[in-house]
Amino acid sequence: MSLPHAILTSLLEKPCTGAELARRFDKSLGHFWQATHQQIYRELGKLEGERLIAARGLATARGSQRHFDVLPRGRAELERWSLRQADPRPIRDSLLVRLRAAAVLGTVDMSAEIRRHRELHADTLERYRTIEARDFPPGVSLERAGELQRAVLRAGIVFEESWLAWCDETLAVRQ
Question: What CATH number does domain 3-83 carry, 3.100.10.10, 1.10.10.10, 3.30.300.30, 3.50.90.10?
Answer without folding.
Answer: 1.10.10.10
